[in-house]
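Lecture 7 notes: from sequence to structure.
We start with the chain below.
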Amino acid sequence: MCGHSRRVMLGAVVILLLVLSACARFPETGQVTTRRLVVQFRVAGQIRPDYHYFILIDNDADFVGVTGPVPPVAPPWGGNGFATGSFQRFVEVNGALPFGGFVMYQVLDPDRRQVFQPLGAPLEATISPDRKSLRVVVDFGSLALDGQDPADIRVLQVNIIATDRTPKDPSDTSLKMWDALGDSRQFPNTYLTLMTDTDRILRNSDTNMEPSGDVVNGNDPDLDIVDWQIEVRS
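Predicted structure tokens for the same chain:
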């Protein structure tokens, strides 16, 4: 590699590290003034650091639930490798990410969901000691759109997606394994519409929407979502 190319690559890496290091916990610890969304789920196996787990959130005042985040079911895998449909925020869990492997992102262009930027770490994020479940807490301030008062968020669409890889090359036609809320073997996949006007807890046992053994293109228990709980808390 020539010296110029090496300097360009090193410069790009430094810029990326500076951007990520500048991202604080969102919002900063101690600055919580609004409600919180608490999402936790369990897999049949264990949360693997080399796999990708996503919590996707759609905040577009869709009280009927017409649109929401869904997994792409075939190449080119949505352009971002993990999700399509409608969403503006998401949390990714992967061992190679900063902030202990948990990063929250903002989608910059609703028509190009592969264009997003990191906001920082979620308010809280933990993996259970047995690595079977994870829990993420985000503040409604981090979900508010530009100019939106967090108190005006009355409804959200939420989905959870687990996948072994996130191919972004449109020419990549190889299969990938994935699971999401609902029976992933039946299309179209579903998502949750959650009213957020008051404190509430919604559990998988309330809906019976999440079966076991429904990983698409494989039978990997580390991707098999078997239980979940979503809470709105003041």
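Points to note: Helices lie at 3-22, 140-143, 204-207. The two ends are 55 Å apart (CA to CA).
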